[in-house]
Amino acid sequence: MTDTFDAVAELLSARFDIEPEIVSMTATFDDIDLDSLSQIELGTAIKKKFGVEISDDELAEMSTIGDVVDSLTGKLADKGVTV
Q1: Containing structural domain, residue 10
Q2: Where does the Carrier domain start and stop, copy by copy (predicted)?
């Protein structure tokens, strides 16, 4: 896995009490019991932790943790930041 994936998995585990072993790139929000309100909270937590924003609309279009990781990786690269 990537450092960005590991950071997102750690964030999900710490913020939403999700067991790390169920988090994978192919896991859906449903797989990890993350409802739409929790997805909004995830966006806020990402902004606080990484300093980049994934909007509520962007998150609503995503279906897997891999989508979140890919988006975050791209946004961090645009800012010249690595995790």
Answers
A1: 3-78
A2: 2-76
> How many other β-carbons are positioned within 10 Å of the β-carbon of residue 6?
14
DSSP state of 51: S
Q: Answer yes or no: is pLDDT of 1 > 60.
A: no
By the 10 Å C-beta count (0-12 exposed, 13-18 middle, 19+ buried), 19 is classed as: exposed
Q: Count other Cβ atoms within 10 Å, centred on residue 61.
A: 9
Tell me the pLDDT of the chain averaged across its residues: 93
The pTM assigned to this predicted structure is: 0.91
Say if residues 9 and 20 touch (Cβ distance below 8 Å). yes
Residue 64 φ/ψ, nearest 5 degrees = -130, 165
Which among 47, 65, 76, 53 has a CA at the least distance from the CA of 6?
65
Q: Please indicate, yes or no, if residue 12 is contained in any of the structural domains.
A: yes
